[in-house]
């Protein structure tokens, strides 16, 4: 073999080696071809995902899945739910058992190494709930009362420092079930309940007029859906669907869901210059 021929073959091999690999089919194309969205979620945590009296899944996570299904097919009912435990949220994505997980999943750096997170669809945090006719009007009154205040909270190794981050002098009473922290407030053993803002919003929605939000939240965490890493087309599509639900053509659907599960009316998106770029 001549030197020039050898050099030519080496050059050809190098060019072939540097050529981009053929693009793999995106999950987006797979889902569209299948005709249904496979969503991983739970079934036991209101107001996120739980069963109705007629055994149908409902909740804010469920509504997010239906928003994505409508963006895909023009039909929010073209969706199959996979009931999964919290510890199956990531494995079911990485093994392709589900197309996407929407299951009040907190975004963390560690998890983002394993899955790709969508844009947020809710920001969780800890809040304080008071009786509507109780002794204290709001968070400022609770803080001013100092050690006179008792707060009921779900038993946890972090419960006391969590409450004291907002009310440094309050007495913290821990209970081993959610029902008991609400009962403590109702019976007067506690002046306030501290737990997830979404749980408080749901509880107040179910008991209109009996309770009120103290007006302070802390310990923020982001909830987002998650998809398999490495598929930008699929991630971009889901992000578009969620974004337009919160800011665009599907806002009424998102706002209706927010009102149903959290009891709050959302202001409509500002018309004109996109708020995201201010």
Key attributes of the depicted protein:
278 residues; alpha/beta; three-stranded parallel beta sheet; 11 helices; 24% strand; elongated
Give an overview in words:
By secondary structure, the protein is an alpha/beta fold. Helix content is 39%, strand content 24%. A hairpin with a 3-residue loop joins strand 2 and strand 3. Helix 3 packs across helix 10, helix 3 runs antiparallel to helix 11 and helix 10 packs across helix 11. It is elongated and about 65 Å long.
Low-confidence segments:
7-16, 18-22
Share of helix, binned? 25-40%
Separate helix tally: 11
> How is the largest sheet built, in terms of strand order?
9-8-10-7-11
Can you summarize the main beta sheet? 5 strands, mixed
Query: Over the alpha carbons, how many angstroms does the gyration radius reach?
Result: 24 Å
Distance between the termini: 65 Å
Write the layout of secondary structure elements.
Blueprint: H1 3-18, H2 27-34, E1 37-41, E2 44-45, E3 49-51, E4 57-58, H3 60-73, E5 79-83, H4 89-94, E6 100-101, H5 109-112, E7 116-131, H6 139-145, E8 150-154, H7 159-164, E9 171-175, H8 178-187, E10 192-196, H9 197-206, E11 211-227, H10 232-247, H11 251-262
Parallel strand pairs: 1-5, 1-6, 8-9, 8-10
Antiparallel strand pairs: 2-3, 3-4, 7-10, 7-11
What can be said about this structure in brief?
The chain is an alpha/beta fold and 278 residues long. It has helices at residues 3-18, 27-34, 60-73, 89-94, 109-112, 139-145, 159-164, 178-187, 197-206, 232-247, 251-262; strands at residues 37-41, 44-45, 49-51, 57-58, 79-83, 100-101, 116-131, 150-154, 171-175, 192-196, 211-227.
């Amino acid at each position: 073999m001549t030197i020039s021929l050898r050099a030519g073959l080496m050059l050809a091999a190098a060019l072939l080696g540097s050529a981009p690999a053929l693009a793999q089919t995106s999950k987006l194309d797979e889902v569209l071809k299948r005709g249904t969205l496979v969503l991983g979620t739970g079934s036991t945590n209101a107001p996120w995902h739980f069963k109705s009296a007629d055994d149908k899944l409902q909740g804010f996570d469920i509504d997010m899945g239906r928003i994505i299904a409508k963006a895909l097919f023009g039909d929010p009912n073209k969706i199959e739910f996979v009931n999964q435990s919290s510890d199956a949220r990531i494995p079911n994505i990485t093994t392709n058992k589900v197309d996407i997980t929407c299951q009040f999943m907190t975004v963390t750096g560690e998890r983002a190494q394993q899955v790709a997170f969508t844009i947020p669809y809710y920001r969780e945090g800890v809040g304080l709930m008071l009786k509507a006719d109780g002794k204290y009007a709001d968070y400022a009154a609770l803080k001013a009362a100092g050690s006179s205040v008792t707060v009921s909270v779900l038993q946890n190794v972090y419960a006391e420092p969590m409450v004291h981050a907002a009310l440094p002098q309050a007495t913290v009473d821990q209970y081993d079930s959610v029902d008991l922290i609400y009962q403590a407030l109702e019976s007067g053993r506690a002046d306030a309940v501290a737990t997830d803002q979404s749980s408080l919003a749901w509880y107040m929605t179910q008991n209109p007029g009996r309770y009120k939000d103290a007006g302070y939240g802390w310990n923020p965490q982001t909830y987002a859906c998650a998809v398999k890493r490495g598929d930008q087309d699929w991630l971009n599509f889901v992000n578009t669907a969620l974004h337009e639900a919160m800011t665009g053509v599907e806002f009424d659907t998102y706002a209706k869901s927010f009102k149903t599960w959290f009891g709050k009316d959302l202001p409509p998106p500002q018309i004109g210059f996109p708020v995201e770029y201010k």
